[in-house]
Amino acid sequence: EISFAQTSRFQFGQFRFHQNSALSQFVSVAFSHATRDEEWRFLEEAEFPFQVIPHSADLHVAGGQLKFYVYYVSRYGCPGLSMTENAAAVAEVARVDASCSTFSLVHSSLTMLTIALCGSEAQKRKYLPFLAQMKTIACWALTEPDDGTDGSSLRTTASQVEGGWILDGQN
């Protein structure tokens, strides 16, 4: 039986970053192992493979690119990868499963980067370390039924209440 991770269906092998082969190989092997047993089930059932989150945390690449945007990024627990190292890690995850690569990019590049660039110092200290360790999983909501991806037209609101938040909208 051939596993999804071993096929060349998407032919990403040609895009391996040779100058970062140790990182590429580490990410590829670890991520392939994380998805190996469940890969067809989550693909066929259109489910997210939650079992990859602990393995992703072990890779310590979440928020890898933030060093270029935030001075002293290590105090937030981010690995401080070069752009090439970060791209190599994302490419290796994509070689195994593109949807997991999208998850990684949303988690690190959209959410963590937004907090790093626009958040207060208190927000950075509160969220970035947990996001870097993947103890907190990030999401990004942009679409609504009537407005598509027009972010300026979002009507969804988040109101803080005792014990959490109330989200009101149709995301």
Write structural notes for this entry.
- InterPro entries: ACX4-like, Acyl-CoA_Oxase/DH_mid-dom_sf, AcylCoA_DH/ox_N, AcylCoA_DH/ox_N_sf, AcylCoA_DH/oxidase_NM_dom_sf.
- GO terms for molecular function: acyl-CoA dehydrogenase activity; flavin adenine dinucleotide binding.
- With 171 residues, this protein is mainly alpha-helical.
- The chain folds into two domains: 4-140, Acyl-CoA dehydrogenase/oxidase, N-terminal domain (Butyryl-Coa Dehydrogenase, subunit A, domain 1, Orthogonal Bundle), CATH 1.10.540.10; 143-171, no CATH class.
- It has helices at 21-36, 39-44, 52-59, 83-96, 98-118, 121-132, and strands at residues 157-161, 164-168.
- A hairpin with a 2-residue loop joins strand 1 (157-161) and strand 2 (164-168).
- Helix 1 packs antiparallel against helix 3, helix 4 (83-96) packs antiparallel against helix 5 (98-118) and helix 5 packs antiparallel against helix 6 (121-132).
- The longest helix is centred in the middle third of the chain and has 21 residues, at 98-118.
Keywords:
Butyryl-Coa Dehydrogenase, subunit A, domain 1; disordered N terminus; 6 helices; 171 residues; acyl-CoA dehydrogenase activity; AcylCoA_DH/ox_N_sf; mainly alpha; 2 strands; two-stranded antiparallel ribbon
Indicate the overall shape: globular
At the third CATH level, what is the topology name of the largest domain? Butyryl-Coa Dehydrogenase, subunit A, domain 1
Please give the alpha-carbon distance between the first and last residues.
39 Å
Averaging pLDDT over every residue, what do you get?
74
Low-confidence stretches: 1-19
Taking the sheet with the most strands, its summary is: 2 strands, antiparallel
- CATH class of the largest domain reads Mainly Alpha
Which assembly state applies to the chains in this document? single chain
How big is the Rg? 17 Å
CATH superfamily of the largest domain: Acyl-CoA dehydrogenase/oxidase, N-terminal domain
> How do the helices and strands follow one another from N- to C-terminus?
HHHHHHEE
Helix count from the secondary structure assignment: 6
Across the major sheet, the strand order is: 1-2
Strand % is 5-15%
The total number of structural domains is 2
CATH architecture of the largest domain: Orthogonal Bundle
Give the helix level as a range of percent: 40-55%
Protein name: Acyl-CoA dehydrogenase/oxidase N-terminal domain-containing protein
Pfam family, one: Acyl-CoA_dh_N
GO molecular function: acyl-CoA dehydrogenase activity; flavin adenine dinucleotide binding
Domain Acyl-CoA dehydrogenase/oxidase N-terminal: 36-134
